[in-house]
Amino acid sequence: MKPTVSGLAAAWCKAVVVAKPEDLRNHRLIVMFFDLTSMQPEDLDRSVIAAEDFLKNKMQPADLVALVSLGDTLKVDQDFTADKNALIHEVAVYNGTEGQALRKRHGELQPG
Fold first, then answer.
1. N or C terminus: fewer CB in 10 A for the chain?
2. How far from 90 is each of 7, 22, 33, 42, CA to CA, in Å?
3. DSSP letter string, 9-56
4. Measured between alpha carbons, how far is 32 from 59 in angstroms, rounded to an integer?
């Protein structure tokens, strides 16, 4: 696994492409925050769809996006990156289709 800008990305996730601190200058930095403690499933689905729409259609080449979620703890799921595919893959975990991966990310399942 490659190191991340902040060093806080979840240890089990693969940080595919991350920016170096000097690469952050002159970029729009965007954090997508998902509060998993209070969102209803349909709200979470809408949030995932909106995030995927932004990543696929509105994200600009100069944008760097990070994904953060709050479950039992605050997790940096993907550090700042311009890699749309990595971001789309990580966002897909939130919508329940990969529920086991999400629960594992927040410590509800033990690796087996």
1. C
2. 17, 24, 12, 18
3. B-TTS---S---GGGGTTSEEEEEEEETTT--HHHHHHHHHHHHHIII
4. 12
Regions in the chain scoring below 70 on pLDDT? 1-19, 96-112
What is the structure's pLDDT at 22? 81
CA distance 28 to 75: 21
At 52, list the tokens.
């995927």
Question: pTM of the full predicted structure?
Answer: 0.70
Give the closest residue to 91 by CA, choosing from 47, 35, 40: 47
* Cβ 80 vs Cβ 8: under 8 Å: no
Query: What's residue 65's pLDDT?
Result: 95
